[in-house]
Amino acid sequence: MEVATSISPMRFSLCLFLLLLVPRFNSAIPYRKIYVDPQLQDGSVGGESFSTVQAAIDSVPVDNPNWVVIHIKAGSYREKVVIPREKPYIVLKGKGKKWTEIVWDDHHTVADSPTFTISADNIVVKGITFRNSYNNPVNGNPRKPAAAALVSGDNVYFYRVGFFGVQDTLWDDRGRHFFKNCTIQGAVDFIFGNGQSIYEECTISVLGDAIQPNVAGYITAQGRNNPNEATGFVFKNCRVFGSGSANLGRPWRPYARVLFYGCYFSSVVYPQGWDSWGSVGKEYQLTLGEYDCYGPGADRSQRVSWEHNYSQSEVQSLTDPGFIVTHLNSADSQTAEYRDIYVDSHDNPDGRDDMFTTVQKAIDSIPENNPSWVVVNIKEGVYSEKVTIPKRKPFIAIKGKGYKSTEIVWDDHRNVLQSPTFTILSDNIIVQGISFRNSYNDPEKNNPKAPAAAALVMGDNVQFYQVGFYGVQDTLWDHTGKHFFNNCTIQGAVDFIFGNGQSIYQGCSIEASGFPHGFITAQSRDGPNEPTGFIFKECSVSGTSKVMLGRPWSCHARVLFYGCNFDSNIDPVGWTSWLCGGKESQGKMGEYDCHGPGANQTGRVSWAYKYGEAEVKELTDQSFISASEWLDKPWWLSLP
Fold first, then answer.
1. How far apart are the first and last CA of the chain?
2. Distances from the Cα of 144 to the Cαs of 79, 80, 169, 190, in angstroms?
3. pLDDT tens string 57-67
4. Predicted confidence band at 12 (pLDDT cuts at 50, 70, 90)?
5. What is the model's pLDDT at position 291?
6. Residue 156 to residues 167, 260, 325, 379, 493, Cα–Cα distance (Å)
7. pLDDT at 17
8. What is the DSSP letter of 535?
9. 186-206 pLDDT, tens digit each
10. In sequence order, what are the residues at sequence separation of 6 or more whose Cβ sits closer than 8 angstroms to the Cβ of residue 555?
11. Were 479 and a residue from 213, 369, 465, 499 both cysteine, which residue would form a disulfide, CB within 3.0 to 4.6 Å?
12. Distance between CA 528 and CA 588 in Å, rounded?
């Protein structure tokens, strides 16, 4: 089901619109459903279904006061899409830039050509590709300006979005914009305009075969008009690669400003780097340069003499989120304050006091009763260590480079309490893009099976995004506190999600492996009035081992699987009473509206709890974990 959500607006800077990647659903917030599916007829589902994206946008009222999230089904949508100036607070959310595409081929004038146009402020776009197909894929058409997107609104955020064209692909016209993990492809001036924008961890793809052989293209054409304008393009930790060659940019206006910082340059970057275009003789007015980049194309020995040499203070100012944030909501002022520290297992050649070789050392450097958020940025790699966040160290965010790229691993197994590779004892913690593994039971070690936890979570208000937990027995000890797991992977065989947490697992992958037969959950609610329980919402359950959905660690155990996909490895009986034989009626372990080969309930134990619709609505709402009090803070992590 594709849901469009209206959320009371927060007059926001960058800090607040990042939150929309995890919209809050609670009983106090109205919402309505909108569907975009080319297989549906407009209005076929309660008047809220649309076969085109533009029809869905047209349904949003003028001067809309609430957030509306439009979910777009996977597919290729052949249409031009415009968000007009008078329609703010819209989120467009596709199924991923490889799966949801909006395409058109206009090319008459650059102003009329964009496949996608944003004229409104306060817009979020996630998981979609916009393509102008006039020249892309490369074909025999004469090369002309043909934009994939035009962005003229303020406070606009793009996450994992693709922009594909050849000339003038992305018109970053004006306003403050943040591009995260996006892909921009083209050949000539394919990122141009006068926006005030940060491009972070984006992929810049040069399409050299779209122009004449041995002719270099241009990535940027920035249009700052005077030295007092705050505008400019900042590329932070991006990758530049492709075919042919391209200059980093040329000035579209006399005071153009562009910075490439910490970027990887393949050999596609033309040795001279920049072209002065219409600013010959006035190059001193330009601020076009690079800082701390690397790769075959980062050799500056042949760069133009007038390239701007950015100072460290200039770089710090431009790469800070403050470059595109002019104010912070006063209610969030405390949580808006944060600092970065870094972990790289290899070395710290510059002796920086914010760089550490282990994750634990980075955490140890944070003072007790820390009042402001600290982001621990961990480089990709395998870190062999045990990591603990002590009780008196709140407001820590652990951020890796992805759960397949950053891993913390240890093999303790003496007893389950001492075994966890990662332990959280503090409140207010965020973890993103990391895997935690207890390797004691890895098959190649052939060790006797023993409880060996990958993680122990005892703090309150803890959030996990795209995190992996890998073990066999007792993988994830969801001990106590309110927790939110989003798009995580939990792997194990026996009781591999256990404890007495009050937790929602949303869109997670549950993978059973390691034993011939096992149990996913062992929940331990102590009494019928305790608010705890494990809620699995729209998760997938699969694996190589036969597995039951759970067994009670305490007789009042509460577990709900809602809207989940069950593979055929689910044991038909579903549940076992374990230590609670004869007391099965005290617990609440059941499922609702699940699907897949393992979802047939005809073979389930007779005492499996039959959840009602009202109870399911209450438990799957984020108010179950009091999300309104904590899940929308802090703001500076781009949450998927």
1. 18
2. 20, 18, 11, 12
3. 999 999 887 77
4. very low
5. 97
6. 23, 21, 11, 28, 44
7. 39
8. E
9. 999 999 999 999 999 999 999
10. 579, 580, 583, 586, 587
11. 499
12. 9
Name the pTM for this structure: 0.55
Side chain identity at 501, as an amino acid letter? Answer: G
Categorise residue 168: left if φ over 0, alpha if ψ from -120 to 50, beta otherwise. Answer: left
- The CA distances from residue 411 to 99, 266, 449, in Å, are 39, 39, 12
> Phi then psi for 192, rounded to 5 degrees?
-140, 160
Percent of the chain with pLDDT over 70: 88
How long is the chain? Answer: 640
Q: Are strands 387-389 and 35-36 parallel, antiparallel or unpaired?
A: unpaired
- Using a 10 angstrom Cβ sphere, with 0-12 exposed, 13-18 middle and 19 or more buried, the burial of residue 613 is exposed
CA distance 550 to 470: 18
For 332-352, what is the mean pLDDT?
58
13-17, 123-127, 293-297, 395-399, range with the lowest pLDDT: 13-17
Closest CA to 398 of 348, 454, 436: 436
Closest CA to 170 of 120, 110, 122, 101: 110
> Given a cut of 90, is residue 450 above it in pLDDT?
no
Report d(CA 139, CA 133) in Å as an integer: 9
Query: Residue 376 and residue 383: Cα distance in Å, rounded?
Result: 14
Task: Find residue 457's DSSP bridge partners.
Answer: 424, 478
Q: What DSSP string runs through 559-616?
A: EEEES-EE-TTB-TT-B--GGGTT-GGG-EEEEES-BSTT---TTS-TTSB---HHHH
Catalytic residues: 189, 495
Confidence of residue 372 (pLDDT cuts 50, 70, 90): confident
User: What order do you get walking across the sheet with 489-492 strand by strand?
Assistant: 381-384, 406-410, 435-438, 468-470, 489-492, 509-512, 540-543, 565-566
Task: Evaluate if residue 138 carries a pLDDT over 50.
Answer: yes
In the chain, the amino acid numbered 508 is C
Tokens of 592: 């609702």
Q: In the numeric block, which tokens belong to residue 323?
A: 């470059």
> In which band, very low, low, confident or very high, does the pLDDT at 332 lie, cut at 50, 70 and 90?
very low
Residue 634, pLDDT > 60, answer no
Burial of 56 (0-12, 13-18, 19+ CB in 10 A): buried
- Contact between 561 and 591 (Cβ < 8 Å): yes
Pick the closest to residue 114 from 146, 83, 89 (CA basis): 146
Residue 229: strand, helix, or coil: coil
φ and ψ at residue 283, rounded to 5 degrees: -60, -25
Q: Sheet with 396-399: list strands edge to edge.
A: 355-356, 338-343, 373-378, 396-399, 429-432, 462-465, 482-486, 502-506, 533-537, 558-562, 588-592
Q: Which two tokens stand for residue 103?
A: 């395409």
Where do we find the tokens 């332990």? Answer: 423
Question: For 332-352, what is the HEC assignment?
Answer: HHHHHCEEEEEECCCCCCCCC
Predicted local confidence at residue 137, as pLDDT: 81
CA distances from 223 to 173, 234, 536, 557 (A): 9, 13, 49, 61
Question: Which residue, among 259, 260, 253, 293, has the nearest Cα to 276 in the 3D structure?
Answer: 253
Distance of CA 171 to the CA centre of its chain: 24
